[in-house]
Amino acid sequence: MPLRNIVIIAISAIIAIACYSVTSKSRYANLYTEAMDIVMKEGLLPADEQTLFDDSIKGMLQGFDRDTAYYRGDSFKSLQEGLNQRFDGVGMHMDTDEATNRLVVLAPMPGGPAWAAGLKPGDELLSVDGNPINVGARRDAVDLIRGPSGSFANITVNRDGKEMSFSVERRGIPVRSVQGDWFNPDGTWDFRLKSNPRIGYIRIVQFGENTAKEFADATNQIVGQIDGLIIDVRNNPGGLLPSVTEICDKFLPAGAPIVEIRGREERVKERYTASKAAKIPESLPVVILIDRRSASASEILAACLQDNGRAVVVGERSFGKGTVQNLIMLQNGRSAIKLTTASYWRPNGKNIDRPSSRNMKREDWGVSPCVGNEIPVTAVESANLYRRRHLRDLAGIHEHFNFQPKPTYFWMQPVSSEDMAEEALEEGNGDAERDAALDTKNSPEPTNAADTPPRLSEFTDHALERAIQVIREHSQSIH
Q1: What is the residue range of 205's domain?
Q2: Are residues 92 and 226 in the same domain?
Q3: pLDDT digit string (tens) for 77-104?
């Protein structure tokens, strides 16, 4: 056969294969477009293209796995703010006075715009930019207060019966992911337990872009002055992998395993091991607090230090999220898919991920406390400890203003039922320093005295007490 004919046949085959490939890929795209057109034209209820597209993407990903998700609009903005540790606003915590259902300033963030403008705890919010703040409309108030950095929010409040107005410039508010035991009035954290100054206490609420640096700054302040360190990752949903591996690195000798990333069919994609960087002294005892809401990066930290014999884990079994998600941008950055692309495996060779319905035989998922350090808590106890922690975080600011929160404030009231507790924990699963207020609901009135929950001050943090005991026992054993 002439060479010319062979070339023609080869080119034709390539074109045919390419056309088949395009047709194969577009079959469902054409079907999807057809279905969308039918719904828009024939459906009883009106529908717009963007909403249909968003709902269809969500539906497609819903059956993929429990951690893959689609983000757009407010949900996408909130996700970015959490990872970037920054949001635009005036920087103040708000609360609801259950007696009046009015919103009040619980505390301005030290050094933030609201603080600089003169807003104080207890100020009752009346209007923003001339828009009245309706009774109970917490989310509406947040939307009015927040806005682009550099713009101004004109906030009118009632202070002790006197109406006062403040012009507050919105700006980027940094969100600290590493917190201590006590919030000083100058806006800094004290990373030692107030009740036990020789014990360090570092709480990581999420692993964001700045977490590793914040953690290093915190340890630099206290290492050498403490007998032990407690790292609290309870209620921490996880975050960025590089942040947690960098923190693990500080506790381990060079070459020690941190975490292994595997793709499909458990093929190893990447191994993280400790470097030769400066370390926290191996003689310093470390305790990690976990609970059922400690997930992902929190579990990597606990599993790594537990498997390497570098920390005692106290609390209850963690959530069991052993998968890695990549954020893939869509629509020129206006939306994104958080797609599961790999799984992570702890140094002992086990996968942390909780089994799905297709594989219910594994019992070694998650991170379990070390033997003798299991501290189970109910959802009610967990929610009330979270509320007490939030108020304690602001106690230093309240002392600065000589302010005592009213018993009728929402955050002062303990929850009394399992459903309320789960809801409170879901709503509060984020950073307490953000002014993105919660859409809280009024607590039901107790039906009798027996239904009245104890005061927040009466809830004991048994896991923290056990962590303190572990460190004291270690200190006594070496002296």
Answers
A1: 178-376
A2: no
A3: 676 666 666 678 899 999 999 888 889 9
